[in-house]
Amino acid sequence: LGSHAPPSSRPLALDEMSGVVAQFHRAALNAREAGFDGVELHGANGYLLDQFLRDSSNQRTDQYGGTIENRARLPLEVVDAVIEVWGANRVGYKVAPSFSMFGMSDSNAVATFSYLAGELSRRGVLYLHVTEPLAATQSRAERITPVLRSGFSGALVVNGGYDRASGEVAIASGDADLVAYGVRFLANPDLPERFRRNAPLNQPDTATFYTGEEKGYVDYPALEPAAA
């Protein structure tokens, strides 16, 4: 590639932090000006805020690294900047404590995400969106989501393998206030109607995930109209 080779990644310098926060602030303004009703900050799946929060990726030794409080500093500065635009009651935050791709992990995920949830709660953030697989072999005690439920006073949105029945159980039991569906919605554009009618679901074609074009995106069949 010669001179066209991409630069190597490097830690952000301290004097760059305020610029990152300003970018989120500008994005929040843009969303408001575009007519959005609110914003969800993506603090999951190895994106920037997740990289700062978790100790597998954050190897800093300054005020943005080391302790949980320091690692959460940039995410919470971003939250504060976005709240300044929207107000806390129109801001959500997404986490994925068990996400482990791209080398992401945390030596004490319960402590890390509990601290973050508590700080988000203290700020009055509208909702916390938690993606954590609902594995059949995983007991409730092994999951972080119930711990976050007890430490966050706003609405809790859960995601990760829920179907109609398990979603209803989560809400009825008080484990969650809302259930988010991703893969099932992708394969079933009329998912709410299918749930309402207890109809069979299309099976997702994982080979078409992230591939672009219309296949696996707009070609899943919808239900036939219900009889009058």
Helix content: 25-40%
Shape: globular
Per DSSP E runs of 2 or more residues, the count of β-strands stands at: 5
Strands side by side in the biggest sheet = 1-2-3-4-5
Counted by DSSP, the helix tally is 9
C-alpha Rg (nearest Å): 20 Å
Q: Hey, roughly how much beta strand do the residues contain?
A: 5-15%
Largest sheet: 5 strands, parallel
Helix and strand element order: HEHHHEHEHEHEHH
Please mark out the parts with pLDDT under 50 across 5 or more consecutive residues, or reply none: none
Mean pLDDT across all amino acids: 92
Structural class: alpha/beta
State the end-to-end distance. Answer: 64 Å
Architecture blueprint of SSEs:
Blueprint: H1 17-33, E1 39-42, H2 48-53, H3 68-71, H4 73-86, E2 91-95, H5 109-123, E3 127-131, H6 145-151, E4 155-159, H7 164-172, E5 178-179, H8 183-187, H9 191-197
Parallel strand pairs: 1-2, 2-3, 3-4, 4-5
Helix pairs in contact: 1-4
